Amino acid sequence: MIDQNLVKAGLSGNIIREIAEYGAEQAKIVGEDHVYNFTIGSPSIDPPACVFETMNRLRASMPAWQLHTYAPLIGLPEARDKTAKYLRKTFGLPYQMQDIIITCGTSTCLAVLTRVLLSGGGRAMTFTPYFMDYKYYAEAFGDGLTECQTDPDTFQLDLEAAEQALTPDTMMLILNSPNNPSGVVLKREGLEALAKLLERKQIEYGHPIYIVADEPYRELVYDGQEVVFLPSIYKNTIYCYSFSKSMSLPGERVGFMAFPPDLDDYMDIYSASVAAIRSFGYICVSNMWQRITVECLGTTSDISIYKKNRDLLYNSLTEMGYSCVYPDGAFYLFMKTPDPDAEAFCRRAMKDLLLVVPGDSFGTPGYVRLAYCVSRDVIERSLPIFRKLAEEYGIAK
Ligand code: PLP
């Protein structure tokens, strides 16, 4: 029997891709220069120089067959070892090679961990606004996703709301900072209070509650804000990282997950994760790209470009009359729509080939997400359209 829930999920599509595809079609008709596409969070700047230097060195020093052969199911031992050393040195926690699994980005981590932690029954919880795929995984493998509201003015954690949202069937909490879609970086104070709350709830419910720290944007912060390393404040945290954004390598599909040695039920979770990776077929991440990325750990693309984009877009839009929570990180701006129906605003903007994504897809109606990992030129040329819309909706300053 074909799983009808999967059929339904497949047919429901992905609004971001739909709008982006519309943009691609329009670009063929009117030309790239006349489409202002802020839909996809795919970096538009080059990877760090280390990536190409390492690639050239590997090509010159290894036989091609060896560089392109299958890697072990959960990663090359040397890649896992270098990752563990990097985490030890950077964050001071005692990770060892055996605690690391190399994955196809954090998407693999999220799919695998929701399956492992929820398929025996249980729910995931996350804070709004959130990356839409969380819901998809939690519904596919568990009893669903609880969406907990954050402070509406800052998108920082609301501890009272969190306490009310937690239930005995909450098995995992997915945290994402810097955040897609808001760009907000969660503050230490709120996270430490959350850690205390979870410790209390674990005792009350009689089972562990795991934090899954989804951190593909860790290095993308612009004014020196602290990005708290969650495993250092809450023991039951599985840390998930990706090279897709910080190194501009989304198509190469490399990331990792790190299990702290003192994680509750470590062996069960680790073994089940290996089996889940195998059952999904997310095996043997590219041998060459594992070598390159771990060699370049700690380097990033030139993120000052994103900072300039952030400043230009945030300052221009707020001066025009729009309101947005100040984005400290990632490469997204979450803007309040002058029409409470964000999808209607998106459709209106589409008529002028300004492509943005409704916040409803991220559990937060009344907003749109703008991915500003685009060229500065696109931002500059889009501003008159934003102004025209502000005037049309009567919010222009
Ligand atoms: N998590 C968040 C918050 C994201 O924004 C994305 C991609 O946009 C992912 C996970 C998945 O990224 P990847 O699988 O490329 O690491």
Q: Care to give the gist of this entry?
A:
The protein has 397 residues and is of the alpha/beta class.
Write the topology of this structure:
Blueprint: H1 4-12, H2 15-30, E1 36-37, H3 49-61, H4 64-67, H5 77-91, E2 100-103, H6 105-118, E3 123-127, H7 133-141, E4 145-148, H8 159-165, E5 170-175, H9 188-205, E6 210-214, E7 237-242, E8 255-258, H10 266-280, H11 287-295, H12 304-320, E9 332-336, H13 342-351, E10 354-355, E11 357-358, E12 367-371, H14 376-392
Parallel strand pairs: 1-10, 3-4, 3-5, 5-6, 6-7
Antiparallel strand pairs: 2-8, 7-8, 9-12, 11-12
Helix pairs in contact: 3-11, 5-11, 6-7, 6-10, 12-14
What can you tell me about this protein's structure?
44% of the residues lie in helices and 13% in strands. The protein is globular and about 60 Å long. The protein has two domains: 4-47 and 301-392, Aspartate Aminotransferase, domain 1 (Alpha-Beta Complex); 49-295, Aspartate Aminotransferase, domain 2 (3-Layer(aba) Sandwich), CATH 3.40.640. The strands form three sheets. The protein has a seven-stranded mixed sheet with strand order 2-8-7-6-5-3-4, sandwiched between helices. A three-stranded antiparallel sheet has the order 9-12-11. The mean pLDDT is 95. It is an alpha/beta fold and 397 residues long. The chain has helices spanning 4-12, 15-30, 49-61, 64-67, 77-91, 105-118, 133-141, 159-165, 188-205, 266-280, 287-295, 304-320, 342-351, 376-392, and strands at 36-37, 100-103, 123-127, 145-148, 170-175, 210-214, 237-242, 255-258, 332-336, 354-355, 357-358, 367-371. It is built from 14 helices and twelve strands. It binds pyridoxal-5'-phosphate (PLP). Pyridoxal-5'-phosphate (PLP) is lined by residues 41, 105-107, 131, 176, 180, 214, 216, 242, 244, 250, 255.
